[in-house]
Every structure is written in structure tokens, then in C-alpha cells.
Design brief:
The protein is an alpha/beta fold. Helix content is 26%, strand content 33%. α1 runs parallel beside α2. It starts with a strand and ends with a strand.
Length: 288
């Protein structure tokens, strides 16, 4: 398992009975997590002194139960980067901290290439953690997400991280349709990364189901890789899409044309109180 263990402003303190106990900067939040199927003792006093807890509704969705006053927005840092945290619907805060291990790997690939012309495409780019990290490392990024609000949030993260003057395209678009247009336009990218949802809808109401779409989308994206491509990365939270399945997809679509190798593994977050690691999805990546 690849572990995101370089955080200072985020901490997964404990996990039990379907919930995470987390520190986001100076604020303590409790959020649901379906992976947490164990019922270990909640001996840490912060379980009973959190700032807010997300409560799921039996009819779907849920809401935040705020015990202490929370700001509408606050910032946490990761290395040189700053991210704006906003507790929002469906338990999210705007950052998936386990993704830091992928941000770091992408930044290393950019740095090790010793080039100043690297173009990266970030699909399903959410609030831009990977985008901001790649911009900071020196890449020119095309950031695509179907949500106008998420793209605006990503712009705010770029501003907070001091990289808003770096070359970037911010696009609100359906990712598959965008890729199809890029193929017709003849555009190419050295790095392509994607973190697609298990299920969703595009801006025009298009239905997206990961298991049905991921292979064809990766096949389209393979046509966008440059001759000197460096990295293709796909992340998934869908339990049915195992690291081995994603590895097979990239091995069949990318390696025959570009060579290189494919690796895949779970990613996770260290749990302070237990010393164990919470699985938080999986990633597969091709590198030259």
C-alpha cells in the first residue's frame, strides 16, 4: 500500500464504527467512512469533544451537526501548498488527503523529466489538489471538471498556494466529450491523470457509471498521450475496480504503444491511535 504520511495539517486520529476522527488544521471533525467496519474502543477523548460531526440521513444524504463554531472556510497546508477547507454536503471538505501520495509522485515525475514544456491533463479534477501540485512543480495544466463550483474552488486553491500566475486552463466540461474534442483538435499531453467518480452526471445530465465507462475513456485518453509521455494515472474509490483491474486496463491500452511499465496498489492514510493504515481507494499508473 502507498501511504500519504507527509501531512502536518491533516491527521487521521482514529477510526471506528463506520467513522473517522480527523484533525483538519486546528478543527476536529468526525465523518462517516464505509470502509471502517470495525468497532474498536473509542478511547480518544476527541471523539467526545469534536467541533462537528457529519450525520447520515436514513433517507439519503445527511448534514453537519456543529458542536462548536466553525468558520465557513479555513486553510490547511501541504508542503508549499495551501488548500481551502469547506465542510459541505455529502461529508466532503474539499480535499481527499490520501491523494497526496499521488500529488507527490506526479511532482517527482515532472521534476525528474528536467523539462519546462510538460503538459498535463487532469480529468474529474475536483478542487484541484493534483492541479495545484503539478503547477507548483512546473507543468502546464488543463483542469477539467463538470462542476462550475468545483472549478472555482480549484482556482481559489491555486491563488492560496501562490501559483495562480502559472499556465493553466480551467474548464467546466464533460470529461469524455472534452477528450473526444481534444483528439479531433490534435492536442497531446505528457501526463494524464484522472480520479473519476463511481457514479455521477455531467453538466447536461449525462449518466456516468465508472465500471461501464472507464475502459473506453482510458482508450480515448491513450490517443492524447504525446510521443514523449511520462505518466498516466487513474484513481478509483470503487471497490469493484481493483488495482489489478486498473493495471490490466493500462497495460493493455498504453504499454503496447508507449512501452514502459504499469504499477497498481491501494492507497491509504496512517491512523495515529492504532498505528495501522486505513485503505482509501486504489491507483494504477503507467510510467515510461
Amino acid at each position: 500500500m502507498r501511504v500519504s504520511d507527509n501531512w502536518k495539517d491533516y491527521e487521521l486520529i482514529d477510526s471506528s464504527e463506520g467513522e473517522r476522527l480527523e484533525r483538519w488544521g486546528k478543527y476536529i471533525l468526525i465523518r462517516p467512512d464505509p470502509q471502517v467496519i470495525w468497532s474498536t474502543p473509542k478511547t480518544n477523548g476527541l471523539w467526545y469533544n469534536a467541533d462537528a460531526r457529519y450525520i447520515r440521513s436514513s433517507s439519503g444524504g445527511g448534514s453537519w451537526d456543529v458542536y462548536k463554531k466553525l468558520p465557513d472556510v479555513w486553510q490547511i497546508g501541504y508542503s508549499e501548498l495551501k488548500f481551502n477547507i469547506k465542510p459541505m454536503g455529502f461529508k466532503h471538505t474539499g480535499i481527499f488527503p490520501e491523494q497526496a501520495v499521488n500529488w507527490d509522485m506526479t511532482a517527482r515525475v515532472i521534476a525528474d523529466a528536467h523539462r519546462n514544456d510538460i503538459k498535463m491533463l487532469n480529468l474529474f479534477a475536483y478542487t484541484g489538489g493534483a492541479t495545484v501540485s503539478a503547477m507548483n512543480a512546473g507543468a502546464t495544466v488543463t483542469h477539467v471538471d463538470a462542476s462550475k463550483g468545483m472549478v472555482q474552488w480549484a482556482k481559489e486553491n491555486a491563488e492560496s498556494s501562490g501559483v495562480s500566475d502559472r499556465p493553466v486552463r480551467w474548464l467546466v466540461d464533460d470529461c469524455k466529450k472534452f477528450v473526444e474534442r481534444e483528439i479531433r483538435r490534435g492536442n497531446r499531453y505528457d501526463i494524464i491523470i484522472m480520479d473519476p467518480p463511481s457514479y455521477g452526471r455531467g453538466p447536461g445530465g449525462e449518466v456516468w457509471k465508472l465500471e461501464n465507462e472507464v475502459y473506453s475513456l482510458c482508450g480515448l485518453c491513450a490517443k492524447l498521450l504525446s510521443d514523449d509521455a511520462l505518466l498516466f494515472l487513474i484513481n478509483s474509490y470503487t471497490t469493484g475496480l481493483s488495482p489489478s483491474v486498473m493495471s490490466y486496463i493500462l497495460g493493455s491500452l498504453i504499454v503496447p504503444q508507449h512501452g514502459g511499465k504499469v504499477s497498481a496498489d491501494e492507497i491509504g492514510l496512517p491512523v495515529t491511535d492504532s498505528g495501522l493504515v486505513l485503505p482509501s481507494g486504489a491507483s494504477a499508473y503507467w510510467t515510461r
